[in-house]
Known about the structure:
Elements: E1 4-6, E2 11-15, H1 21-29, H2 31-34, H3 45-53, E3 61-67, E4 70-81, E5 86-93, H4 102-116, E6 121-127, H5 131-139, E7 143-146, E8 150-156, H6 157-162, H7 164-168
Parallel strand pairs: 5-6
Antiparallel strand pairs: 1-2, 2-3, 3-4, 4-5, 6-8, 7-8
Amino acid sequence: MSFFADELANISFIPLQAKHLELVRQWRNSSMVNHHMINQEHITKEQQQQWYQSRNSTREAYFIAQYLGDNIGMFYWTDVSQEASSIQTHGFIGETQWHKTPVSSLAIIAFYKLCFQQFDMVWGRILKTNKNFLSLQETLSASCTDQGNYMFCELDKSTFYSSSLAKLL
């Protein structure tokens, strides 16, 4: 059962469970995903298990993204600030057939919709080499500033829902 579904985009999010750990680890260690991560360290099974057990449910939430019921990636938020009503967002599409396709963008937009149900601002650090994701941020009118190797991008709820792309979905 999904935690959140965007029926128009056929994207749903289910809470991360222990049964997903090996799949997520394989995705995260793949060259297609890893080179877009700020931390590009190879993750062992033991590290993955330790990370899973140490998560903080009050400051983070992790979801498996599904497209038409198939697992395609992981999206999550960290650094919850109740005072600022903001979160840092992260995520990746792990299944290579969905990289650089509209499904990738649909998943990100659906995830932002999920985030904006509870928070007013999302932010993230995006490597400059991740041109597709930066292009989507620009399309959504996110505010991005140069931070050296990465861009710091912020997007508030009203700007997101005012964007032409979000209005389509």
